[in-house]
Design goal:
This protein is α/β, with parallel strands linked by helices and 433 residues long. The chain is built from 16 helices and 19 strands. A hairpin with a 4-residue loop joins strand 12 and strand 13. It starts with a helix and ends in a 14-residue tail after the last strand.
Length: 433
């Protein structure tokens, strides 16, 4: 079946699913494959659960006498092609976001700001890969005036695949740093892959790129692009400029547009590093005509709920939750911010940083060495990689060992930074703290 015919079916049944356990009535099921499953095996179940059609890519699972079965060469490719066709048909203006750190928070902030004026579709959670991106695009309707689409990568070429599907009209790379080095090979590999978003914008020869003007890595690959700059310096060419006023523990910032009136905003985000995410949202909102009052309202009221830069207050402690992900760049930023917070006593529970490849031992040792320069009251390190370091700090093999220690003796009235890669599962700790 060609994409045009499939798209006609999609217009009649504009909901797609890739999970046979979640089959809205009248939806279309795409039988994707994974390392340990074959979606084709669940096609019949999807029909029984309420799907109107199933898209399969193995002849053995195709029932030719049943018109509800659609046979294609590859289900994932077809899903991506359908999303691309839908995106082109609607022509919605799309802002594409990628970056090593901050892309999800920036996506949330940009969406909050733009939603003050527009009907905005945006990536839910961190569904930013080769499956999540097309599923996001297929949620677009004619009523949406703008879309904010997050794109993630762990290997060279990942961003190119996604931008070719999304075809963004506007772009922002939040930053580049040391993450997924096992897949990218080096920081240079990270820069090249994230830069594939810039490459697309350069090829399309139109559209704006929002850029942190003080980031040498980004400015170094931005030649020939139409730039809208934001930052924290006093450079004359900044569209939006800002500075940290306080972070005790929530960030308070001041910002100006085109060097005019200065505005102060009290946020609900932890971390001075979030100033750049805030300024990016202010720059994008300003460009799209969102008023200063609306921008400030959105930035003030945005509350994180995804274990990113959020403060959880329990009856025993105050937890700085940043346990969704971790890499050397974000870990160092979190520790520097924690160091600068004028609170006490301080405790850090840090988990391994995953997917660093050959650099893992070196990068974990750098974190331990930096921790040794801080005056934290207590430090707990969790995971196999931290276990390989030369460290004076208490070490636990896994989160279960930490939970046992907390059940035996829980810290009281501490500010506790909790950060690590999602696979270390430090998100299980707050209920014990």
């Amino acid at each position: 079946m060609n994409i045009e015919t499939l798209y006609h079916i999609f217009q009649q049944h504009p909901v797609v699913t890739t999970d046979s356990r979640d089959c809205p009535e009248g939806s279309i099921f795409f039988a994707l494959k994974g390392a340990s499953f074959n979606g084709n095996e669940f096609a019949q179940r999807a029909l029984e659960q309420g799907c109107a059609y199933v898209v399969v890519d193995e002849e053995a699972y195709h029932q030719a006498t049943d018109s509800r079965y659609i046979l294609v060469d590859d289900c994932l490719t077809t899903l991506q092609q359908l999303a691309h066709y839908h995106r082109r048909t609607l022509g919605t203006r799309i802002i594409g976001i990628t970056g090593t750190n901050g892309k999800t928070t920036t996506k949330e902030l940009v969406s909050a700001v733009l939603s003050e004026k527009y009907n905005v579709l945006y990536t839910l959670g961190n569904f930013n890969n080769e499956i999540g991106v097309p599923k996001t695009l297929l949620r677009l309707t004619a009523e949406h005036e703008l879309a904010v689409v997050e794109m993630g990568a762990s290997h060279p070429g990942d961003i190119k695949i996604l931008v070719d599907i999304v075809e963004p009209d506007y772009a922002i790379i939040t930053n580049v740093g040391k993450a997924h080095l096992q897949g990218f090979g080096s920081l240079e590999g990270v820069i090249k892959t994230k830069g594939e978003l810039y490459d697309f914008m350069r090829e399309r020869k139109s559209g704006k790129v929002f850029i942190h003007a003080e980031n040498e890595h980004l400015m170094g690959i931005a030649e020939g692009l139409d730039l809208i700059k934001y930052g924290t310096t006093s450079a004359d060419d900044l569209y939006v400029q800002g500075e940290v006023m306080a972070c005790d523990p929530f960030l308070r910032l001041a910002w100006t547009k085109d060097g005019q009136q200065r505005y102060e905003v009290q946020t609900k985000l932890i971390g001075t590093y979030n100033i750049l995410n805030m300024l990016a949202a202010a720059a994008i909102g300003s460009y799209f005509g969102v008023s200063v009052e609306q921008i400030n309202h959105a930035l003030t009221h945005y509350t994180p709920t995804n274990n990113r830069s959020q403060l959880d207050v329990t009856s025993h402690n105050r937890l700085i939750m940043d346990a969704y992900n971790a890499n050397p760049t974000s870990m160092m930023a979190a520790l520097q911010n924690f160091r600068d917070m004028e609170v006490s006593p301080k405790m850090a529970i840090l988990g391994d940083m995953r997917e660093l490849g050959e650099t893992s031992e070196e990068e974990h040792q750098k974190i331990v060495d930096f921790l040794s320069t801080l005056s934290l009251d207590e430090v707990w390190l969790v995971g196999e990689e931290f276990g390989k370091t030369r460290s004076p700090f208490r070490h636990f093999n896994d989160v279960n060992a930490v939970k046992e220690a907390l059940q035996a003796q829980r810290p009281e009235q501490h500010y506790i930074l909790i950060k690590g890669s999602n696979g270390i599962k430090l998100f299980q700790l707050p209920e014990l703290l």
